[in-house]
Amino acid sequence: MTMRPLRHAPEPYRRPGFGFTCRLLGALTALAILGACGSPATEAVSDAESAGGSSFPVTIEHKYGSTTISKEPKRVVVLGLTDVDAVLALGVQPVGFVDWYGEYPKADIRNGLWPWSHDAVGDVQPVVMPRNEDKFNFETIASLRPDILIAQYTGMTEQEYKTASKIAPTVAQSADFPDFEAPWDDTTRRIGKALGRSEKAEELIRGVQEKFAAARAAHPEFQGKTAMLVGIYDGVIYARGPKEPHGKVLAELGFSYPEKVAALIPDDNVLAELSLEQVELLECDVLMVGEFETAGDLTRHPLYQNLAVVREDRVVPGTEPVEGALYWATVTSLPYALDHLVPQLAAAADGDPQTKVAEAIS
């Protein structure tokens, strides 16, 4: 399974090649033919009248200049891999979005959506566009007759932006952050402004912030303790760094990142690569071990078994929906992750080896 995009790491850790190839002629032809028609499956519209917030027109600055949305968009198409969470949380039913995981055979993902967004979809199912590695399907996008294209969590190029903009006003990724690294609150705020729902966006952001604050207040024992998440792939241990969503979540809860591992993360990277002979560097107060395909290669390693953090049951085992929630790091996935993760972190950090971490699930 390909999870959250990263720099300088092999699959399943690599940033997706989302440099979509332009197919302008076909896209514009499809737009011209389909501009006056549509199927019932693509007729969902937003319900912004009751949402309050931004008035139109609005102008949003982005990596390739600025985009002005002259009136409330009714037909929203989502190109960013995780942007659909914020769109749905804002009460907008997109007519289409990109499925990051394709035919991934897990019950947790239904119609391209993880559990935290299942109930947000209305009666009309959006068109789920398969992610085709490094290119957008502009013909399909045009056929949905969008009023706006939301493209925050993408690696959209300037040429692709120009192509997309010929179909509909396109809100490209922020210029303030590297591609795929804008924080969840910034993304939510930008999407909220584009959809005329700024007040609702701020309300959602406050809700997540309050949830983090409540977790910190309930668990002062997290303060000052070290924690990190690791996985293994092809015999290499990947320790996800403090700039990754997992690291940011742990820091927001009060944990600090192990200094010895942080020193091994290159300036242009977001993780450390360790050999199995460096397992001792995983010693920390709380260790999260990802549920990756070859995680058993790590957990069965003799040196790993000898770590104090392992012997004293201070390891939080990864479970797929929770890991997915951390990878996505959206306004709806983070509350889901906290609900499931905080009890386990508390069990691991309480200093009592008798507390069973794996059983501490709310």
What attributes characterize this protein structure?
Rossmann fold; alpha/beta; five-stranded mixed beta sheet; 12 strands; 14 helices; disordered N terminus; single chain; 362 residues; five-stranded parallel beta sheet
Explain what the structure shows.
The protein folds into two domains: 24-210, Nitrogenase molybdenum iron protein domain (Rossmann fold), CATH 3.40.50.1980; 219-359, Rossmann fold. 33% of the residues lie in helices and 14% in strands. The strands form three sheets. Strands 5-4-3-6-7 form a five-stranded parallel beta sheet. Strands 10-9-8-11-12 form a five-stranded mixed beta sheet. The chain has helices at residues 24-34, 83-89, 115-118, 138-143, 158-165, 184-194, 198-218, 245-253, 259-262, 295-299, 302-305, 308-311, 320-328, 333-349, and strands spanning 58-62, 65-69, 76-78, 96-99, 127-130, 148-150, 170-171, 227-233, 236-240, 271-275, 286-289, 315-317. The chain is of the alpha/beta class.
